[in-house]
Please model this.
Amino acid sequence: MVETLLLRNESKGSSYPVMLEKIIFIGSIIGFIFINQILWSSIDVVWYQWIATVGLALSMLILNEIIGRFIQMMRARK
Model:
């Protein structure tokens, strides 16, 4: 048992799969690069290209966070 700052006794669980999360993050960076190239080649206006790039980056970060939360949720069910 582990004692927390609030003096609760909790049991230790298994470690979080950090390497899996890092691999997913690196995969999303590589995916961002390829998808961004497709976006830039299909959009003609530079202003829209930059807006699409920012939107794609934010959506990739949100997707990473959702995947991380899903991994946590699946591990909490065990």
User: Anything to note?
Assistant: The first strand starts at residue 2 and ends at 3.
